[in-house]
Structures are given as structure tokens and as C-alpha cells.
Amino acid sequence: MSKIDRYIANSVLWSFLVVAVVLLGLDFALTFIEQIKKVNDNYTIQSLMQVILFRLPGKLAEYIPVASLIGTLMGLGTLAATSELTVMRAAGMPIWRIGFAACQPIVLVSLMGMGISEFVAPIAGQKANLIEKFQDQEAGTFSLTGGVWLKADQDFVYIDAADNTGTLYNLQVFSPDGQTLTSIRTAETAQHIEGSKWRLNKVTETRFAADHIDKIQMEHADWDVSIKPEHLFLASQEPDTLSLSQLHSYQTYLNQQNLDGSQYELEFWITALRPIASLALVLVALSSVFGPLRSSTMGGRIFSGVIIGLAFQNALNLFGRMSVAISFPPVIGVSIPIVICLIAGFILVRRRG
Predict the structure, then answer these.
(1) Most buried of 167, 178, 190, 238, CB within 10 angstroms?
(2) pLDDT-wise least confident of 62-71, 95-104, 162-171, 272-281
(3) What residues does 186 pair with on adjacent strands?
(4) Where in 39-153 does DSSP place strands (E)?
């Protein structure tokens, strides 16, 4: 049986790889077409290509469940079209054994996907974010969109971008006195020195007096703020670009500060439960191959896989966002479509076999 297991696993694995390459290729092409309008003298074609390529590891990890579904449909569908599955069943091989063989490569790629999500995608995605942010820095302008706002002590701080070395980019500090704005400091970069001390570089400070405005430019300035550098870095990132450990760390910090960390908790569970989601969709694919898609064409199987995958992804987003909106535990919202697929797939497979 081991040779048959390897044969089934190889068929599913190669089909998965083909589907993953096609999905990444489509994503690359569509993203390039959508983002080409942003190209200018500062944000060149080369920069755009770098951004898209840096975000591909994260996209690969995100596409693993859908690619597992379509890959299983294609791999087992090919064996069904050549009557090889029929021969296996006639030889006494149960459906659960075929399913076990099909799940082996999916477990492997799911674990690889977890590794990518933890160690590769966050670093690459954060580099992509910095490249996009640098176009404003090179143009000598400051953008108040796409970054993050924080309340630091008595000041309000805007950070356009940050990296994991503790460097902040395009920083603006708004200092009020009650309801009156007293000064604005802008800095191209800021480096953490120690404790609560930061060094601002290329600083422009605008001070608002009762009857005049003073503008002072400095090469360097000191900045004291109580927020830790790792929290400033994590706050400047989108939740979907963070690793599981970073999501857990920042969510814990927000909860300790009595702030809303549900978006980070939601993204944590979406990533953490991705391998189980992949296996649930493989179970659905297995029940379909031995059921309604047994005699369909390859095109029909791919189309069915795309529809099921889109329905699953939409349900995942719907229940996940709903759980955040109604202050329900995100883990339950994310688990609902996964559990539905597991139960439906198990019942259908049991009926077939």
C-alpha cells in the first residue's frame, strides 16, 4: 500500500504546485495592473516589482487552503478520469485510506506555509511596506495616510513607516496644551537610543504662539516617549504582515492597555488555523471526487474548486469580521466555516464509502 500512497500523494502534490503557481501568477499580474498607476519618478517600475515580489510569500501562505482544495480535486480527478481510483476501490482500498494519502502532502505544505507566515512573509512584507513609504520620503513630502496614529504621553504621534531595527520614518509629533496645538515636530527618521530616549533626524519644528508662528530646522533633536520601540514598530504594521508571535505580543500589549486588539486576534487565528482549514477543504474535495464530480471534466472540477474556495474564503472573512463587530471571540468566528467544512466533508465521505 505504501507505493499507492506515494503515487496518490505525488499526484496531489504536483497538482497543488501547479495551482499555487497559477494563483500566484494571476495575483502578480492583477496587482501589477492595479498598481502601475502609482509609478512615477520616485516610485519606479523596479520598485513596484520589488514590492509585488516581496509580498508573494505572504500570498502563497494565504492561498494554501484554496490551492489544497483545487489541487486535490485535480490530482484525484486525474486518477478518477483514468479509472485508477476505481481500480484502487475494487482492490479493497477504502476511501479513508485514499484521503489519508491525499492529506499527507497537504500537511507538509501547510507546515511549510506556517513557517513562511512566521519567518519569511513578515520580513518580506515589511520591506515591501518600507519601499512604498520611501517614495514620499524621497519626494520630501509627508503623507498622513497609510501610517499609524498613537497617543504617546500627552502628544499625538503619526508614524508613516517603521522597521524591525527600531527606526521610524516620516514621524510627526503634535503637542497640544489642552485644546490648543502648541507645536508640530516632523522628522525624516528616528532611532531608539535607550529606555525612553529617541534621536530625531532632520527635524523641522513649528511653534504656534498667540500672535506669530516660529519655524526651526535642526539636524538632530532628542525625544522622550514612554512607548517601547517594539510596540511602535508593531503599531505601524498592518495585522496581515505580522507573524504569529508578533500578533500575540502586540495583542497582549493592547489588552494590557485596555485597548482594542480584536483585529490582531482575528489575524492570529486566521493564520494559526490555516492548516486545519486546508485539511477541511481536502476532505470536501475528497467527498466531491467520489460523489458529484466523479465523472465531470477537469474544467468542471477546477470551476467547482474555485467556487467552493471562494465561498469558503468569503465565509471566513464574513464570520471573522462579524465576530470583531459584535465583540465575539474571533477564534469562534474563524472556526465556524472550518468546522462546517469538516462536518460536511466527513458526512459525505462516510456516505460514499
Answers:
(1) 190
(2) 162-171
(3) 172, 204
(4) 148-152
Task: For residue 35, give the C-alpha cell.
Answer: 498598481
Amino acid, res. 196: S
Question: pLDDT tens digit string along 110-119?
Answer: 999 999 999 9
| Whole-angstrom distance, CA of residue 152 vs CA of residue 190 | 15
Residue 125: burial class (beta carbons within 10 Å; 0-12, 13-18, 19+)? buried
Nearest CA to 113 out of 48, 66, 50, 163 is that of: 66
* Correct CATH for 148-227 of 3.30.420, 2.30.30, 2.60.40, 3.40.50: 2.30.30
Say which DSSP state 139 is in.
T
Overall residue count recorded for the chain in this entry = 353
CB atoms within 10 A of CB 315: 15
Compute the CA torsion angle 60, 62, 67, 72 (nearest 10 deg): 120
Please report, for the chain, the start and end positions of each structural domain, with discontinuous segments joined by +.
Answer: 2-136+254-352, 148-227
Strands (E) across the chain are located at: 148-152, 155-162, 167-177, 180-194, 197-208, 213-224
Rounded CA gap, 119 and 319, in Å?
A: 27
Residue 260 amino acid letter? D
C-alpha angle with apex 158: 156 to 163, nearest 5 degrees?
130
Cβ contacts of 50 within 8 Å, gap of 6 or more? 128, 131
Q: Are 175 and 182 in contact (CB under 8 A)?
A: yes
Which own/partner contact pairs does 32-39 have at CB distance under 8 Å and 24+ positions apart?
A: none
List the alpha helices (DSSP H) in 82-119.
84-90, 95-115
Based on C-alpha coordinates, what's the Rg of the chain? Answer: 25
